[in-house]
Amino acid sequence: MDIERIEAIIEAVLFTMGESVEADKLAAAIDHDVDTTLKIVHNMMDKYESEDRGIKIIELENAFQMCTKPEFYDNLIKVASQPRKYVLTDVLLEALSIIAYKQPITKMEIEKIRGVSSDFAVNKLVEYGLVKEVGRLDAPGRPMLFGTTENFLRSFGVQSIDDLPVISEDMVEQYKEEAEYELAADSVAAKLDESDEDDNQLTLNI
Amino acid sequence: MDIERIEAIIEAVLFTMGESVEADKLAAAIDHDVDTTLKIVHNMMDKYESEDRGIKIIELENAFQMCTKPEFYDNLIKVASQPRKYVLTDVLLEALSIIAYKQPITKMEIEKIRGVSSDFAVNKLVEYGLVKEVGRLDAPGRPMLFGTTENFLRSFGVQSIDDLPVISEDMVEQYKEEAEYELAADSVAAKLDESDEDDNQLTLNI
Amino acid sequence: MGINVKLQAFEGPLDLLLHLIDKNKVNIYDIPIVVITEQYMEYVNQMDKTDLNVVSEFLVMAATLLDIKSRMLLPKEVNEDGEEEDPRAELVQKLIEYKLFKHMSLELKDRQLDAERALYKPSTVPPEVEAYKPPVNLEELVGDMTLSKLNSIFQDVLKRKEEKIDPVRSKFGKIEKEEVSMSDRLVHVKSFLMEHRSFSFTQLLMDNHSKVATIVTFLVVLELIKTGFVTVEQEKTFSDIMITVQKNPELIEDIDEE
Lengths: 206, 206, 258
Description:
The complex is a heterotrimer, with two copies of chain A (about 210 residues) and one copy of chain C (about 260 residues). Chain A folds into two domains: about 5-75, Arc Repressor Mutant, subunit A (Orthogonal Bundle), CATH 1.10.10; about 90-195, Orthogonal Bundle (Arc Repressor Mutant, subunit A). Helices cover about 55% and strands about 10% of the residues of chain A. Chain A contains eleven helices and five strands. Chain A has helices at about 5-15, 25-30, 35-50, 75-80, 90-100, 105-115, 120-125, 150-155, 170-185, 185-195, 195-205, and strands at about 20, 55-60, 65-70, 130-135, 145-150. Chain A has a three-stranded antiparallel beta sheet. In chain A, strand 2 and strand 3 form a beta hairpin. Chain A is elongated and about 80 Å long. The model of chain C is unreliable at about 1-5 (pLDDT under 50). Classes of the chains: A alpha+beta (about 210), C mainly alpha (about 260). Chains in contact: A-B, A-C, B-C. At the A-C interface, helix 1, helix 4, helix 5, helix 7 and helix 8 of A face helix 5, helix 6, helix 7 and helix 9 of C.
């Protein structure tokens, strides 16, 4: 068997196996001993490397594998990558608004405000580059604190987070008044009002 | 980008994907229009075929795929296993050849040609991925129309359905000649021959 | 007469007829209809009659043959052009077409044997390529969303939170009025859909088993079936419902609860 044919067989075997192939298997395919096989394959490796080829052969612990030359990954991406659609859903916008106005804030707090788990939403916002980790809260578990990114500011046309439109005190007052109104004559209500201070604090701390 | 690099990219893409890649995707990978891409790939196909390579590129209705050269099969099966997915019985082959030549075709039409119910055969062929529903006939009941798949092309080494072995005029002629020979002196035979003209048309129009 | 047709299996009446024509060494264009019909009937009579579907197919052909046989005895019919018609013509045409396809199927078989000698390769996309995500186009993503819209969303969220706190009962702490809104469940279902392509209804309820949650979740699933985001399958009554995602869950819009 001439050398061209042997090389062709090795090429065919490495191609169809996809994964790594031990030297002795290659030897079996071409009906030669392992030493000769190794010599031939090493020679082929050099050839693939130096020629204008899209693929190359790599050696892994006495086994060989054919693989794509990394320099073509960018071209490959155009064929292999999945088209993705990025959308700011209502859920994401909600989480984003909370982070924007209450930053720095933990996931837990966002959850408390929204009443539902916000893991997914926060992660997506981080992926989109609108939100980032800005530190850790000095509390048990040291939970991450999230805040908006510069990209966020740029995209929403804001100079700095201080420029975010304030939640007017009027509105907060209004919430409080509604509550007070409903509970006005009630002593229980009065107590409630006091004990609710915390909650209000939370909203006032904006 | 020089042609060597373009060819290397196409090699890398076809190798990596393993499955068939449409011409327009290859075109996107090399940043050229489809026509140019087709020319380049066709040229590569010739090169692979003529050079001492273990692999080659096949065309399947405007898509391309890499596979090993059949001549190395005996060496390859020493180390690689060929997954034989299905055995096609004569019944299945018959139904398949009718579908291949007359697509798109309904089950009813297949039955008319074979003279027997072909439900089972068609369903099996669909299960094997050789045949698929390609639409519905605009007729009462809107019956399904069947055609062959890319997998059919691959499994039978056919580039496109236009490339199927032709039902030759010779074959029909041959039947007729046999008839004429035996019935040479018979006037009935001559008439039959004439009136069969239409039939031939039918078979040739496939 | 009576060439003994072995009881071999034929694919159908046409197959059997071709066999008989071949066996009798007669010409397909000039079938000796009496002989062939006789042998055909002989075969049909010996057939295993258990499969009525198969038998009936053979019987239809038997009727055709008998019809041709009788028409052969009558004076020749004449067509519009004044030419004599052979009663066998239609059958001959069918047999020839069938024979051609049989021939082509053998040709295909050869091709398959050749084609099987080529081996393919599984896809081996490098992880680096697989993991690639196109950069987020923030301008497109943010679209016509503005800061003031974001602000009003925030206020809605706060308002919703206020409303959720029942000022009196929340004081008692222990008594919980369960509020499960469609929107809330949708948010949960949606995030579940993003991470799982296929799952059971029970899995959906892992976070909340209460009766209300179950009902509301079910309503949400019904809504998603309606909008085509999922399909469901249930093997039998009372078995778990399997849900499969059909469309990108990110596109699910909030449910209008009216």
